[in-house]
UniProtKB/TrEMBL annotation:
One Pfam family linked to the record: Glyco_trans_1_4
Organism name: Acetobacter orleanensis
Limits of the Glycosyltransferase 2-like domain: 348-467
Protein name: Glycosyltransferase 2-like domain-containing protein
Organism placement in taxonomy: Bacteria, Pseudomonadati, Pseudomonadota, Alphaproteobacteria, Acetobacterales
SUPFAM superfamilies, alphabetized: Nucleotide-diphospho-sugar transferases, UDP-Glycosyltransferase/glycogen phosphorylase
């Protein structure tokens, strides 16, 4: 769009005479209609009856076919044309063109609200799309990908967006077969339906896609080779009626709107659910590379290539490339800009070099780029004959120790140790590259953990495969790098743990401890087992050696060794090692592949817990997941190793996973329920305890645990009910007017508890649920509620303004969605005129894409902000928290969280009963059968400062007394130590 056009809006409601003359030139030329005025009169007099479109953005013929009720209104004389209907009424609810879907566009742009559209002078989402979205290369339907359109070379101007250019085309698309999205394959379509090609040649359609979206028998045509109308309709009986009644144009429309997200099969040979289990697919879909698993499947032809074998075989190539890159960098590094001068170093680096000048310069450049603070760098030149002899002329601040011959890594490091001035000493090879944050993360680990003596890195070889993720010592004194030849992103390589030792390629050690131990033991000179011995002596001195996956190093491996690796030298030093560390080795495992997981940690007496949840319990999910997250964190704080295993494989990006859990939690993000049995069997005898979150997961896991009973050494299973659901479900059925539920609460409880017999201990969230469990024959019940730390300070009454609703909305049937609908429909209107006009009702929390809250966005009083990175600022800016829940189970975490943030609450009486608080003191409690009383309570709490402060103080006291961290840890510890 040119600067002159930026202020000129594209308008779907005007007659475009220039386009019309080109589009319908045959009939206009025949009738000799030429001027713009004559053309417009022709449209009014004859074009409308011929179902002509008035502009490229509205398709009259399609509109009348899509909406037969509109065609009937035209016959009755209510409107002259579909275009007139759309301009006057339809623009709020109907689609104007077969290549644009209003609901599709708005769902993918939740930030677009009615208020925002009005502020921009737009009447609907189509206005927004034509004037903003199209220029941002947004998509307005499943069948139009602007990038695909541009890729086909169809674009002719920058003054219009891709969509505008596409629909303005007045002749068939060249070749008819240009692909506009993954969901429709025009070449396959024309080959499969040759009659369509004939119709295209006769100019009945502008493209193959036009035919597919406009033809009168939509269920007779498939869009691509991966979807079958006949198959999908035959296996989805729940959809057939909706298609027959016209709710969906065809089965493919249902699939795109719903089936693809439910991972239904589009074709007998396409297992979309199995395909989506692949971590790479999930990562690329979640990243936005593809809209969904089906698009990914089509793009890859259903094939997933595993390049792990190629990576292993190509290491010799990657090493050559690494060498070449060092050589290329060298001239750039010879200008003396590398500077390691210091006054007081944060740490000291020791590098041993025997030749390999270019590689050493590259390693130093990586070190300098990796850490901006002061450091002491000591380079030991171990008999080099190349440029290493003059390295200090090119790098400022280096301290160089030279030896006439190659004395090796061990003796060179010990010689440098005498000159170390930093509080921490980093042994660093000169054949590596540090990934961003490596040294800073290592320093942070030692500074924050006084009992950690040394920390090592995740070493990745030049071919992208792991060298080690920490290393293992076996009982015979042999060693191995854990997970060698695996991908660096596997879950097992990505949690912090205590290990036997880490490689000396990158090993950060406390200097005072290192000097106390005398550095490396010279009995191992010239090489092999020196860092292994040092790490074991660190253990024996009462300190930990830690593997930290946030320290990532690309390592050439064997790139600078001046010694010839010899089996005799390894055997000699292994025998020396075995004699010196007999007591330590007697505690270790005999070597066996199946014992790798058990041997990967040096904390042999640490109890291990397998924690199973519906999903990875991110805090933002609410609905009990926040509590599960707290349980995991507390287990780790109590000293347990925790493996988190989801029933459903996560789709969130890796950065979300890594930031959501303690770094010592092992999070299995690449597997789910179908792989659980093999997972447990592969770790037979490893776990001391299995913690199952949520009662319904006991149902899912019962057959799995029975098959794995011999693999769980202690046979210890804890089932955390999270909430007893039957009373809530019963309340919901009664509330929604389903009449008397077919089952009584007692019958529903019996069904809910049918698999709790597996548990040696059952956990309830409150005493009320515990009593229900006991009455149903389960005396082995403990209680674990919520942990909340009251904030020492939060803003007062004057500094707060709005009303807040905070909660996760996972599906349209959830209590939060129900309560939000009730409040916005029944209570919010009663607040009009009673609160200042600028007071907003904020809706905050995770919203599943399946949940449509767009009607709320139409209310100017409602501020729909969805999920936020941090809830603290949201709590701090609001004066009243509302929780109008009409059916619920367990304890609502949001009540405790709001109270801990100093935000007084108006809640339904059912929630007040669940938390066991005193109505009128700890919160204002109102029945949800009385909207007026609920509104009155909000106004009273909002306006009465004295009442507000009283309620706030009572709730904070509740938090301090009942939900302190110390009390919570004590309760959890008692539950875990029941054996």
């Amino acid at each position: 769009m040119t600067s002159s056009d930026k202020n000129k809006k594209l308008d779907w409601s005007v007659f475009d005479s220039v386009w019309y003359k080109e589009k319908y030139k045959d009939v206009l030329n025949f009738l000799q209609v030429q001027t713009d005025e004559a053309v417009q009169e022709f449209y009014k007099d004859k074009g409308i009856s011929l179902k002509h479109s008035p502009n490229p953005y509205f398709d009259e013929d399609w509109y009348l076919s899509k909406y037969p009720d509109v065609a009937e209104q035209i016959i009755r004389g209510d409107f002259r044309s579909g275009f007139e209907h759309y301009c006057q009424k339809g623009f709020t609810s109907h689609n104007p063109h077969w290549l644009f879907d209003e609901a599709y566009y708005l769902k993918r742009h939740p930030d677009i609200s009615d208020v925002g559209l009005a502020e921009l002078g737009f009447r609907n989402g189509y206005d927004h799309y034509l004037n903003i979205g199209d220029f941002q290369y947004s998509s307005g339907s499943w069948f139009f990908d602007p990038n695909a359109y541009l890729k086909g070379g169809q674009a002719t101007t920058l003054e219009l967006g891709p969509y505008s250019q596409c629909v303005r085309a007045t002749t068939p698309v060249t070749g008819y077969g240009h692909r506009l999205s993954w969901y429709f394959d025009p070449e396959w379509y024309l080959e499969t339906y040759p009659e369509v090609r004939k119709e295209l040649d006769a100019r009945e359609w502008t493209s193959a896609l036009h035919h597919y979206l406009v033809n009168k028998t939509p269920t007779l045509f498939n869009p691509d080779p991966y979807f079958s109308e006949e198959f999908y309709g035959s296996i989805n009986n729940d959809v057939s009626g909706a298609v027959e009644s016209g709710n969906f144009r065809n089965f493919f429309e249902h699939f795109l709107k719903y089936g693809v997200h439910e991972l239904r099969k589009p074709l007998s040979t396409v297992d979309l659910e199995g395909y989506y289990r692949n971590p790479t697919v999930q990562q690329e879909v979640n990243r936005g590379d593809y809209a969904d698993a089906f698009a990914h499947y089509i793009a890859h032809g259903g094939r997933l290539e595993d390049d792990a074998a190629f990576q292993k075989e190509s290491e010799h190539i990657s090493k050559k490339i690494y060498h070449e890159m060092c050589r290329i960098r060298m001239p750039l590094l010879l200008n003396g800009t590398l500077d390691f001068t210091y006054e007081y170093p944060d740490f000291t680096v020791i590098i041993i070099a025997h030749n390999h000048f270019a590689m050493t310069l590259s390693a130093l450049a990586s070190l300098r780029a990796n850490y901006n603070g002061p450091m002491q760098v000591i380079v030991v030149d171990s008999g080099s004959t190349d440029g290493m002899r003059m390295i200090e002329q090119h790098v400022r601040g280096l301290e160089v120790i030279r030896f006439p011959g190659n004395i090796g890594f061990l003796l060179g490091c010990n010689a440098a140790l005498e000159k170390v001035r930093g509080p921490f000493t980093l042994y660093l090879n000169n054949d590596l590259e540090l990934v961003s944050g490596a040294t800073g993360n290592a320093l942070a680990r030692l500074r924050s953990e006084p009992k950690t003596g040394a920390v090592g890195a995740k070493l990745v070889r030049t071919n992208g495969m792991l060298q080690e993720a920490g290393s293992i010592v076996w009982r015979d004194g042999s060693v191995c790098g854990y997970l060698r030849d695996r991908r660096p992103d596997v879950p097992e390589a990505n949690f912090v743990r205590s290990v036997d030792f880490c490689s000396g390629a990158f090993l950060l050690v406390r200097t005072d401890l290192l000097k106390q131990l005398g550095g490396f033991d010279t009995d191992y000179a010239p090489a092999y087992f020196e860092e292994t011995d040092l790490c074991l002596r660190i253990h024996e001195a009462g300190f930990d050696v830690v593997y930290d996956p946030s320290i990532v190093v690309i390592h050439y491996e064997y790139g600078t060794s001046g010694f010839i690796s010899g089996a005799s030298m390894i055997a000699r030093n292994q025998e020396t090692f075995r004699k010196k560390h007999g007591n330590y080795l007697r505690q270790k495992n005999l070597f066996h592949e199946r014992l790798l997981v058990r041997a990967r940690s040096s904390a042999t007496r640490q109890k291990r817990i397998l924690f199973i949840e519906d999903r990875l319990p991110y805090r933002f999910l609410g609905s009990g997941f926040t509590r599960s997250n707290d349980v995991i964190r507390s287990m780790i704080e109590l000293g347990y190793h925790v493996t988190v295993y989801p029933v459903y494989r996560p789709t969130e990006p890796m950065e979300e996973i890594c930031s959501s859990f303690p770094d010592r939690a092992e999070v299995i993000w690449d597997r789910e329920l179908p792989e659980l049995e093999d997972f447990i069997k592969s770790r037979a005898g490893y776990y001391d305890l299995v913690w199952i979150a949520r009662t319904h997961n006991a149902d899912r896991l019962a057959p799995v645990l029975m098959q794995c009973a011999d693999a769980i050494s202690s046979h210890a299973v804890i089932i955390d009910t999270e909430a007893v659901a039957a009373p809530r479900e019963h309340q919901k059925r009664v509330l929604r007017g389903d009449g008397v539920p077919e089952q009584s609460v007692e019958e529903m409880l019996k069904h809910e508890f049918r698999h709790l017999f597996m548990a040696e201990k059952i956990v309830a969230v409150n005493n009320k649920d515990a009593e229900i469990l006991k009455k149903n024959g389960f005396p082995n019940v403990g209680v674990l509620g919520h942990m909340q730390k009251p904030l020492p300070y939060s803003p007062g009454w004057e500094a707060r303004r709005d009303i807040l609703f905070l909660g996760a909305m996972h599906d349209s049937d959830s209590p939060n969605v129900d309560s939000l609908a009730w409040f916005s429909g029944q209570v919010l209107p009663l607040l009009e005129g009673r609160l200042p006009d600028d007071v907003k009702f904020t809706v905050c929390g995770y919203i599943n894409p399946k949940v449509d809250l767009s009607p709320l966005a139409k209310n100017p009083r409602i501020n729909l902000i969805g999920r936020v990175a941090a809830v603290g600022p949201v709590y701090d800016s609001h004066r009243v928290f509302v929780a109008p829940t009409r059916f619920a189970a367990g304890i609502p975490y949001k009540i405790h969280e709001a109270a801990a943030h100093g935000l007084p609450i108006v809640a339904s009486s059912i929630l007040c009963e669940q938390v066991g608080w005193t109505p009128g003191e700890d919160m204002l409690s109102v029945s949800t059968t009385d909207p007026q009383a609920f509104a009155d309570a909000i106004v009273r709490l909002y306006e009465d400062k004295t009442l507000w402060e009283s309620v706030r103080e009572h709730a904070l006291t509740r938090m301090q007394e009942d939900h302190s961290r110390a009390k919570y840890l004590e309760q959890l510890k008692a539950l875990l130590n029941f054996q």
